[in-house]
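TA notes, week 10

Several of you asked for a full example with nothing omitted. So below is the full record: structure tokens for the whole chain, then the designed sequence directly under it. When grading your own attempts, check the secondary structure regions first.
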């Protein structure tokens, strides 16, 4: 086995060195000489350290995504899902295994009325490489529809082909509910104002009619 250590170059920087050696003997078994090989493995060590750093960053990112309350998914343009976080499973009602094995995000999870629209957004993403943000609906496992907003990105492979697409999903159910309540309240307010105006008008008409009658009776 070799021994790895650092040496300092004349200009001050350090090199990673792998030392390997053996001992040569005379025919009678006495010591003759040593054979030593010093190999500069600085680039190899740097590459290994960079790989370890990237691995740590990837592990940290994975932990952050898995612990996030925002649904996240990675898939392919044809509809297959390859990575989802627990929040995505909670949003759709499916387990990870179900989503990976049997579910298509652009068919099973997307209502028919939204597929053409989402397809155009996907095509624009693939053509321009620009992230696409848009609203749509998901179909929950139990059948009810969930209004959502997607922020969709893509990754390229070494040949600049689309490797996968990934999206951050925001559940709009609460926002839509509040918007609907606001619209209903505004509608009731407008209806109340109309009824008040009608009442005022009716009161005025009654007053105008009542005045001549009062004069006649007097």
């Amino acid at each position: 086995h070799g021994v790895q250590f650092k040496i300092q170059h004349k200009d001050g920087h350090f090199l990673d060195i792998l030392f390997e050696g053996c001992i040569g003997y005379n025919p009678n078994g006495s010591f003759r000489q040593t054979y030593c090989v010093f190999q500069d493995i600085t680039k190899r060590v740097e590459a290994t350290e960079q790989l370890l750093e990237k691995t740590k960053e990837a592990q940290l990112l994975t932990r952050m995504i898995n612990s996030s309350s925002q649904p996240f998914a990675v898939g392919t343009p044809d509809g297959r899902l390859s990575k989802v976080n627990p929040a995505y499973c909670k949003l759709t009602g499916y387990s990870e295994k179900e989503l990976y094995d049997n579910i298509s995000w652009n068919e099973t999870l997307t209502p028919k009325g939204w597929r053409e629209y989402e397809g155009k957004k996907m095509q624009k993403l693939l053509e321009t490489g620009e992230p696409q943000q848009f609203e749509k609906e998901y179909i929950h496992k139990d059948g009810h529809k969930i209004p959502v907003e997607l922020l969709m990105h893509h990754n390229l492979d070494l040949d600049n082909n689309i490797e996968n697409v990934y999206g951050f999903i925001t559940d709009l159910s609460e926002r839509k509910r509040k918007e609907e309540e606001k619209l209903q309240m505004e509608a009731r307010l407008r209806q109340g104002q109309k009824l008040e105006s009608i009442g005022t008008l009716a009161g005025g008409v009654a007053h105008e009619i009542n005045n001549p009658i009062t004069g006649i009776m007097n």
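The longest strand covers residues 14-25. Use that as a sanity check on your answer.
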